[in-house]
What we know:
The chain is 74% helix and 1% strand. A hairpin with a 3-residue loop joins strand 1 (164-165) and strand 2 (169-170). By secondary structure, it is mostly helical. Helix 6 runs antiparallel to helix 7 and helix 6 packs antiparallel against helix 12 (213-239). The chain has one domain. Mean pLDDT is 87; it is low at 1-7 and 320-325. It is globular. A two-stranded antiparallel sheet has the order 1-2.
Amino acid sequence: MKSKTFEKHSYTFMLLGLMAVVLLFFTVLKGGMMWKGDVWLGIAMQFPEYGVVTLGLMFCFICGKMDMSFMALGNFATIMAVMYMGAHADSPAGGVMLVGILIALGIAVVGGLINGMLVAYLDIPPVMATISMQLVWTGLSVALTNGNTVKGLPSLYTDIGHTYLMGFLPVPLLIFLLIFAVAWWLLQHTVYGEKLYMVGTNIKAAEFSAINTRRMVIGTYILCDVICCIGCLIMISTMASAKADYGTSYVMRCILILVLAGVLPDGGMGRIGNVLIAIVTIQIIATGVNMFPNLNTYYASLIWGALLLVVLVMSTRVNGGFQLKRRARKAAKA
Length: 334
């Protein structure tokens, strides 16, 4: 029984082991600095914005699709929201914030719908469709702002990204945990979650199982982009502004986290708990690199890439050729 449990969660144990190695590495090099309370408060404040974005992209990966437009769409949506809030600065802050957030989420729904229609009905490859939309959203954002930063957020809104409840609990972390709980519930306890894994595993078999795969793909793109937009709304709170190129580095970081967590764009696989471990591990690396003032912070990307290669090699061994077997099963079903 124990061996079956270990086999089932072997990838999770491997990720936890890697996190422990990373912690040990920075502990040895920097002594007790890694375990100061302020350091962990900083970690808890920094990862939620791209952590939420990663959770949104996770749904597309499980569905076997790709979305490269999520940050460009999120930037356009938040620019529109900030413009609205700035134009109504004299109105009550609470109502203005609510309408601005709804505007951003509404734009995210439209963007997700467009992505889903391009992929599900026009059969455009997901990468090409969403890269095209990435250019569209970026172009609209630059045209609206001339590439400048857009300000005008109410102070009540900017406080969200810098507030600690009870002195130790960041508000962005609470938002992340709420989104995480909703995503976990959708994947583990709903019919949608079951169908999502089926579509990602074998879309033809899902069609023969009377699943409306087009509706699933469109709905997943909408869900992905709405959640990603929430992450962008957190980001503009911490930045106190919006801009066309905010968070562009998050595109590859989110993909890195998902691959590190074993959520591959092939579809039909991945555990949300592993995504959480990967998010925290990536942030620990970024924070650890920042502890070396003479070290270029871009070395974090080098470490992330090397870590990803190590995990891919180890996961191939741990899974015992699972990917090859899975592809063989998909080919046989087709």
